[in-house]
């Protein structure tokens, strides 16, 4: 399975695009501050999923998924800050927060499933080179 087939990557990527759209309306004085931080942390979520899935071992894959989770929480904080600074209205903030919450749950589910498969000895066979490919992984496809 290719990383583009992962629903969690697709959702994270779509939110990066949305973050770029909303930050284009932030005040110019934030261009090298909050705007850049928010764009980088949101892009890092999707990028870490891609990089981890391209690694050679399950341990490396999990580490990049943990990094994605950390970047996701950083992004959530930056969005909260943007709302509190009144760069985002509550109507713009809440849908983003809800979508990031969904991605957080998906990442946690993916991490848990990979760990279970790894403990069963399937991960090194089925996940090591291409992420979610191999035996017993059908239920992970939609994550």
What does this structure look like?
The protein has five helices and no strands. The protein is elongated. By secondary structure, it is mainly α. The chain has one domain: Up-down Bundle (de novo design (two linked rop proteins)), CATH 1.20.1440.
What's the helix and strand layout?
Elements: H1 7-23, H2 34-53, H3 58-84, H4 90-119, H5 123-126
CATH class: Mainly Alpha
Total helices: the number is 5
Give the radius of gyration.
Answer: 16 Å
Taken together, the total number of domains comes to 1
Strand tally, please? 0
Which short descriptors sum up this protein?
mainly alpha, 5 helices, 143 residues, elongated, de novo design (two linked rop proteins)
């Amino acid at each position: 399975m290719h990383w583009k087939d992962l629903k969690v990557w697709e959702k994270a990527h779509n939110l990066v695009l949305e973050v770029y759209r909303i930050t284009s309306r932030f005040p110019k004085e934030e261009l090298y501050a909050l705007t850049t931080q928010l764009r980088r942390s949101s892009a890092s979520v999707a990028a870490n999923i891609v990089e981890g899935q391209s690694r050679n071992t399950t341990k490396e894959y999990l580490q990049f998924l943990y990094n994605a989770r950390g970047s996701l929480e950083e992004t959530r904080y930056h969005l909260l800050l943007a709302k509190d600074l009144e760069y985002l209205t509550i109507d713009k903030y809440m849908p983003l927060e809800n979508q990031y919450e969904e991605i957080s749950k998906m990442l946690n589910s993916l991490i848990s499933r990979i760990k279970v498969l790894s403990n069963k000895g399937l991960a090194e066979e089925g996940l090591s080179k291409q992420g979610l490919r191999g035996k017993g992984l059908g239920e992970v496809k939609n994550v």
